[in-house]
Design a protein that fits this description.
This protein is 41% helix and 15% strand. It is of the alpha/beta class. The chain is globular.
């Protein structure tokens, strides 16, 4: 060993600077802020005054007018925050602009107050900023189903996938017979599934739609039998209003529509009439066409704006806001790199203040990343599930319930520990 590598204990006394350590301290909540200040002995009055000054937020606001962007920038600078806007905002050479606002939560709150007296619709923008900040800190959601209330936030829920189809990419053909499907549902419940998601039409890339009769024949008998014997909520995975109606009448508790109400004009009426919880997912085109064009100018912005529009559509159709869940649509019209990016930035969707559903189980982006066939993607799925939970997912949609339930429980234990931050 070189002499220079040997630590001389006396040097710690002779050079007190060597005792000093400097480390990054990410703080993401006011509670964490208070805990960290208590650790170093800050006076309680100081803790009260400074707790929200240690929080730092970055918000991107899109499609502002130049006057709106100009005023927002000036107001943020006036309270000590930062605001990034395009060059053309000052000269009004552009029709609309995006802005990135950066500051402490306290600075944001001050600006929101100041926007209340500003023109150009800035009062409403201030209210929306406040809603996003409140949503980011939202810890629990209550979803009222027909027969059971679901609480999100205390733990991540496992949605077990049951495809009653001949052509689904993972379990196609395995559960066509009613008795096999019912048996599999019971197995998943024993393994820890919180919700059973039943579908009778494959949505894998390139898949063709099935007739209404075929889909009804596949799913309704299974839903009826399962609902008769269990109290775990059942989700119907369909884009057809008539399938949803029959499923609801026979025991389904949730409607999972991958088209977000785009494919059947009657779907919202059925869901609103029965006061159903719904899952709205992002997808370009249809399963047949969704992989034809994978180019996005801004992936996260497009998904966010799409979901924003579909949520507004659902609300206008009579679906209660507290009944809506969102799904960014992993594998639906995205490249492998896109899917990885969505998982990595999943917490951005927390701004909606709605439960986040994510389905990564055995999908092709895992196969492409690890060069593995569909039957050999368990560990890859486990990694995506764990990271998704730490990034804010509330429901994990999976095929291998027993194994993924263990991953969920471990990830929840980390996330719920008193020292967790991400």
């Amino acid at each position: 060993m070189y002499k220079s590598q040997i630590l001389n204990p006396k040097s710690l006394i002779q050079n007190p600077q060597s005792k000093i350590s400097i480390r990054y301290l990410p703080i993401i909540s006011e509670t964490e802020s208070k805990i960290e200040m208590e650790k170093i002995g800050v006076d309680p009055v100081g803790i009260s005054l400074m707790s929200n000054k240690l929080l730092h937020l970055n918000l991107k606001i899109e499609n502002l007018t130049p006057p709106q962007a100009n005023i927002l920038k000036q107001e943020f600078l006036s309270v000590g925050g930062e605001a990034a806007v395009p060059r053309g905002v000052i000269t009004c050479d552009i029709d609309n602009a995006d802005a990135i606002l950066s500051g402490t939560e306290k600075q944001f709150r001050h600006v929101i107050e100041k926007l209340n007296i500003q023109p150009f619709g800035l009062e409403e923008i201030g209210n929306r900023i406040k809603n996003v900040i409140d949503n980011i800190h939202k810890k629990e959601f209550m979803l009222k189903c027909k027969n059971k209330d679901i609480v999100f936030g205390r733990k991540t829920l496992v949605m077990g996938v049951l495809n009653i189809t001949p052509d689904s990419f993972s379990d196609g053909g395995l559960y066509i017979k009613k008795e096999d499907a019912v048996k599999r549902a019971m197995e998943m419940i024993d393994d820890g599934a919180d919700i059973i998601d039943i579908g009778g039409e494959s949505s894998r890339p390139g898949s063709k739609p099935v007739s209404l009769k075929d889909e009804l024949d596949r799913v309704v008998p299974v839903i009826k039998e399962i609902a008769r014997n269990i109290d775990v909520p059942i989700s119907i995975d369909t884009t057809k209003a008539e399938v949803a109606r029959h499923a609801i009448e026979n025991g389904a508790d949730i409607v999972n529509d991958i088209s977000a109400f785009r494919f059947d004009k009657d779907m919202t009426a059925v869901c609103a009439k029965h006061d159903m919880p719904v899952i709205l997912m992002h997808m370009r085109g249809t399963p047949q066409t969704m992989q034809d064009n994978l180019r996005y100018d801004d992936l996260m912005s497009e998904i966010f704006c799409y979901l924003l529009e579909r949520i507004a559509f659902a609300k206008d159709a009579g679906i209660k806001p507290e009944k809506i869940m969102i799904d960014p649509g992993i594998g639906f019209g995205k490249s492998a790199e896109d899917n990885l990016k969505i998982i990595n930035r999943l917490e951005e969707f927390k701004g909606f203040g709605l439960p986040i559903v994510i389905g990564t189980s055995k999908k092709s982006f895992i196969g492409k990343t690890l060069n593995l066939d569909v039957d050999d993607r368990l560990e890859g799925t486990a990694a995506t599930v764990a990271v998704s939970i730490l990034k804010g997912a509330n429901i994990i949609r999976v095929h291998d319930v027993k194994e993924m339930k263990r991953v969920v429980d471990m990830a929840d234990a980390i996330r719920n520990s008193s020292e967790f931050r991400i």
